[in-house]
Amino acid sequence: MNKVILMGRLTRDPEVRYSTSGDQQLAIARYTLAVDRRFRRNGDDQSADFIRCVAFGRSGEFAEKYFHQGIKIAVEGRIQTGSYQDKDGKTVYTTEVVVENQEFAESKNADSSASYSAPAASAPKKDAQPTADAGDGFMNIPDNVDDTGLPFNF
């Protein structure tokens, strides 16, 4: 099985070209995702991998219209390898992800610079009700609520 799922940020705007097949045009969007590594190796300064992706047809048109540098997306697809001869006659090997599905991985109003600063802490009011935090779309849970039944409670 050849399946890959990635989440990362676009390093630049997608490069889109159109191929003519018969009387139809096919969009081909190419972009690179910067995907953070979960763990760093000893002495390794690079904490991200830069993975080339290609989206065809409607997925390519979607990328052209909605994706831009810095946006965080999730991609599902397959790895494809290939090779070609460069102008000097050297064989160049390529690896890229052929996109089968792509979607936004953060809210529309999220900061595109990927920096996040936590809201300032304030003392909870007695019998406070959950309120929506304007920055991230999540609800704050008051301290007086028993949260043991909430999912992902550690």
Question: Mind sketching the topology for me?
Answer:
Blueprint: E1 4-10, E2 15-21, E3 24-36, E4 48-56, H1 58-66, E5 72-85, E6 91-104, E7 131-132, E8 139-140
Parallel strand pairs: 4-6
Antiparallel strand pairs: 1-3, 1-5, 2-3, 3-4, 5-6, 7-8
Would you kindly provide a written description of the structure presented here, covering whatever features stand out?
With about 150 residues, the chain is mainly β. The chain is about 5% helix and about 45% strand. The chain is built from 1 helix and 8 strands, in the order ββββαββββ. The protein has one helix at about 60-65, and strands at about 5-10, 15-20, 25-35, 50-55, 70-85, 90-105, 130, 140. A 5-stranded mixed barrel has the order 1-3-4-6-5. A two-stranded antiparallel ribbon has the order 7-8. The protein is globular, with a radius of gyration of 21 Å. Mean pLDDT is about 80; it is low at about 110-125.
